[in-house]
């Protein structure tokens, strides 16, 4: 920040008064706070602002992906799959139904921001504390991210062009055994079962890495953007257009997206303003695939039959005894079914506002927003043969004799309006801003999906592999096989809210918010509730006694408390339950379906309430070169909305969850000379979650390998603790007896946790926590005569990952992880990798054997570039020109056997390694020019 002072002054000597005035301006950053803006110094809560330049030049289709490691308290778990949505959590997991924060894009609520062009973003504010979030009431419990898009500014017409192209490559990949290792482990498995060795390896003698057969080599990501803007004192107009295309890490995965944005802001008079805007996107979504089958398929099979004869060129089936019933040839899936699913997504967001000032201190603003989202898709199931080596014959792939088609469409339309009245006044030492508002949100959703098959008796033949025939009404479809499903719901919300921002002497600040929300998603009679917050701050650095501490330039202590709400549940109508098929009945000799309630009416269902507080400080020191902020937060959700499985199923409010921890933000900015500036910034967040209570004592629910139980972390992994392997029968006799399965030397030795002298299900305990002890990120940047270098780093520490593949947890003979080569083969050969034996379920119990250390450190992004000197380019009619070279995810150090060490999930089950999808390294080159 001191650098900005030097630039402003032109290195001239400044008076003390001028210096103080400039310093004051440095910390009067304006941030979005929901339904308005405010000076950050006047706020009592925690709001982190990220400039649009942070996300604009990174190779990400979804701008939220670029925030990983940038903001304390913000967890972003990315997936490298094109078009995917990141798992985003703010200050931990505080509910059992939904984890994502609410997004507010230019005032309109959104579930995600995948429709936004990163180049259109002016800034993103991450709201974390109750005094910032209570104004959103029922949507604020999980935090909020406010996105402000670019608008035209006063001045001449400007045209901005930006383009980048990048190439993908895989960094991490799972370690799997090759053909020889597979043969050894598989035959050992058979021998341990008392069975003869497999005698057909002469037919299956290839050595195939299935990952290599289906991965996309050198996938391309290309981004192109055009923005035209013109601004005068009376009218400001901007238009932008973007096109992006991205290849996935698997063949034929391709994502294409067009985006557009238009804004027109009109100053009708000195006191009257109006505006209109449109944001839109059109996407061709990729036909998504998985690496799961490539990890499990045996490596001894060649992808394609190259033996001369009638079956030459067919895809090989996996061996009938070794996985053919469970796994298809991975290449056959990718190649044989390529380009057989066409999904499209269209989003259209018009908005308008009218604003006027009156009575000197009052402003009234009327906002209107529409969100229209339409998703469509058509797909095809082909029929083709694969070669069966054992019988030297062919058979239809997956036993499928009939072609098929699927078709779907869904529409999601939301109308939102709010009316805002704001009063601003400064009298004497008092600075007061009051805001009152009324808002309604009406959402209507409908969907249709259907499927059908062809018929061998159809005189036209099977359904052709041609998209023009992939419709339910196609003449090739057998009408008797049509299956159609529909669904629809409406959601209504009405809210009244108000906020006060007050400061005295610019030293003592009070922020308060109150909101009354009504929602159709809750039970009649309980649909309305109150949410509120209050926060205070004291800018100590303005006190006279602080003059004795000259190295502290700015110090503010702050704290806030609030009550926020949550309404996320799987259904929308609790007073009017839906009916589902629950059996059949016979009438007059005909069979009819019987319908039962999906759940009982919830006559007393209420809001979840999040009671949250924080306290901390913000500071700047050493001529504002050094900044340091620290915050403690505590969030407790009460009256959780539980969907209880019973007879019948029902909803109820019960239980509570707590998340707490610390946030630290440290920064240093300095100018060494007129030509050289540099900066270092870092953040660290600790998070601890705990289930405080549930429905009743002893209540527990399993979500895959995770358990929901009082006293445990949210999403805690549950199972047996492995204390090694039994080395001999004497070892077994001298250990607690197993009641969960027969054991032999080479099997796991589970710990007798409760000390009752035997191994029972009661010995299961917490074996891992998917929430990291802390996450951290830091960045360094330098600028010398237009050359710049920026590097971002990110890491997590202290979390566990549950490995859900390659554990021998299936009777099917899947491929093996490389670690299995270190298996037990006799006393003393191993005390961790068990013998090769799949006939018993004993070794497949969830245990610490499946737990991996989730800690990792990543070089997140490195960018080197050059901003051309204006004197060199102004003769070409160019205002600014930047070229840069960027590498994203160049290197990750981790302890997880998989493509990536990070895994999202639901509120109650996350951090599960299901083989994953690569977060690829992307090497890109870009250019940005402004005329």
From TrEMBL:
Q: Please provide the record's keywords in A-Z order.
A: Cell outer membrane, Membrane, Transmembrane, Transmembrane beta strand, Transport
Membrane topology of the entry: Multi-pass membrane protein
Q: Which Gene3D superfamilies match?
A: TonB-dependent receptor, beta-barrel domain (2.40.170.20), TonB-dependent receptor, plug domain (2.170.130.10)
Cellular localization per UniProt: Cell outer membrane
Residue ranges occupied by any TonB-dependent receptor plug domain in the UniProt entry: 39-144
InterPro entries under this entry?
Beta-barrel_TonB_sf, Plug_dom, Plug_dom_sf, TonB-dep_OMP_SusC/RagA, TonB-dep_OMP_SusC/RagA_CS, TonB-dep_rcpt-like
Q: Name one GO cellular component term.
A: cell outer membrane
- Pfam families, alphabetized: Plug
Q: Which family does it belong to?
A: Belongs to the TonB-dependent receptor family.
Q: What is this protein called in UniProt?
A: TonB-linked outer membrane, SusC/RagA family protein
Q: Which organism is it from?
A: Cloacibacterium normanense
